[in-house]
Design brief:
35% of the residues lie in helices and 19% in strands. By secondary structure, the chain is an alpha+beta fold. The strands form two sheets. The protein has a nine-stranded antiparallel sheet. β4 and β5 (50-53) form a beta hairpin.
Amino acid sequence: MAKVKISTTLGDITVRLYDETPLHRDNFLKLASEGFFNGTLFHRVIKDFMIQGGDPESKGAPAGKNLGSGGPGYNIPAEMQPAKLFHKRGALSAARLGDEVNPMKESSGSQFYIVWGKVYKAAELKQLEHQMKMQQEQNIFNALAMERREEIMNLRRNRDREGLMELQDKLAKMAMEKSKEQGAPVFAEEQLNVYTTQGGTPFLDGGYTVFGEVEEGLDVVEAIQNVETSMGDRPKSDVVMNVTVVE
């Protein structure tokens, strides 16, 4: 069982890395053993959401410097298992670029975040499931529309509104059918239990790879997510970290 210690200016956080995500585990251990993270900042902190770090460009960064785009020069393939490894409070997850430029949801080579989130009511999670289902259908519809892009452009050039409406209805039906085949996104029982008692950020499940969790120092995570921030969600007083391999 691999563990790392994230020593910060506000205290220490011990994190267990999951064996179920070996690519992320081994990469994090490699970077930690090389001292890659030492002197970097928790450069993006959002209260009741998460704390993010791992940008090498944050080392000694002057106030006002734009942070969040640095890394080791590579990405890591996604290892998402949302029903088992999910965004509960204290989860260690990999940051990444957005879907529009990163459709495979590959993780940043070094940037990570630790979840804080909030405690949810059961009804809120049901509503979130509904929103996730709608988003799934929309994503499928968008993909189908991209496949028919030339046809859509021709219809627009010919100002064929009736043809466009017919095609839109056809694609919407196809998207609904494909969504049913994939199965509606629903939270597993363990997710429901944890999100309604401990809390977290359930809306991130299935979008980012969770590859570890805090074993000690959750109070330090709480302290960091409570700090005052300035532009770009950067803490006004730098929260510096050193990361070492414990075992």
